[in-house]
Design brief:
Largest sheet: 2 strands, antiparallel
Structural class: mainly alpha
Number of helices: 11
Shape: globular
Order of helices and strands: EEHHHHHHHHHHH
Strand content: under 5%
Distance between the termini: 35 Å
Oligomer: single chain
Strand order of the largest sheet: 1-2
Radius of gyration: 22 Å
Length: about 240
């Protein structure tokens, strides 16, 4: 069954939940890949906060080196507080990570500098399971976007949509390993995105030019909007802070 969703270019045909989410992101002026990453991270943290401390599989992985990066250590704590008003699961999981880190540091204490550096580099890699889920979701979103770009409405929407700059690059990298048809569609998307980026850059230049005290009255709404668009372009466009 195909559901049509209004988007920047009209109607985006969506066949399943993943395509519906990507279409909604484009429709609402968000980067669909940023949106997929955020949703995946949220779901991973929610599961860890609920059951992570009792998940034997995860605990076995942690014994082998899996831990949490800085943002997701904080994210896990915030998620658990939202769900249970407690931080017990967070404490249990971070205790397991810290025990292994301490054991690793003790083993390195008596070794030579080269061995210490190699061991510290291994310990510094958090092997965060939330990051792994997010990376997987990002790859899946990029692939799906390139697949659906075979349809005209999606192709147009991807050309005009608010893709963040990192994901413009990522989409191109993913397209490079695709078929000739995918690469041709990417070329069309890139041309349209470059026109969008060029328009933002021109308005930013005008905004900067008009920012002096004697010219501020010349600043236009379009120039102010270009400034906001540039922040989203470099900073990404998540829907909202679901941790609040």
């Amino acid at each position: 069954m195909t559901q049509s969703i209004g988007g920047p270019s009209g109607k985006l045909p969506a066949r399943d939940f993943e395509e519906i989410r990507l279409a909604e992101a484009l429709e609402r002026g968000r980067c669909p890949v940023c949106d997929a990453r955020q949703e995946s991270g949220y779901a991973a943290l929610r599961g860890l906060a609920r059951e992570g401390s009792t998940d034997r599989g995860l605990r076995d992985q942690m014994d082998k080196g899996v831990g949490f990066c800085q943002p997701h250590s904080i994210g896990l704590s915030k998620m658990e507080l939202l769900q249970t008003s407690s931080q017990l699961a967070t404490a249990v999981l971070l205790d397991a990570v810290l025990r292994r880190r301490l054991a690793g540091l003790k083993k390195l204490a008596g070794k030579d500098v080269t061995s210490q550096n190699r061991g510290l580099a291994e310990l510094a890699d958090s092997q965060c399971p939330v990051c792994a889920r997010i990376d997987e979701a990002s790859r899946a979103a990029l692939k799906r976007l390139l697949d659906v770009s075979a349809e005209g409405a999606w192709l147009t929407a991807l050309g005009s949509g608010e893709l963040c700059l990192d994901d413009v690059y990522a989409l191109g990298i993913a397209a490079a390993s695709g078929s000739r048809d995918v690469q041709q569609r990417w070329s069309t998307i890139l041309s349209a995105q470059m026109r969008r980026l060029g328009a933002i850059q021109e308005q930013l230049a005008e905004y900067a030019h008009n920012s002096t005290s004697d010219r501020r009255q010349l600043i236009t709404k379009e120039q102010q909007e270009a400034c906001a668009a540039s922040i989203r372009l470099f900073g990404g466009t998540p829907d909202k802070d679901r941790m609040r």
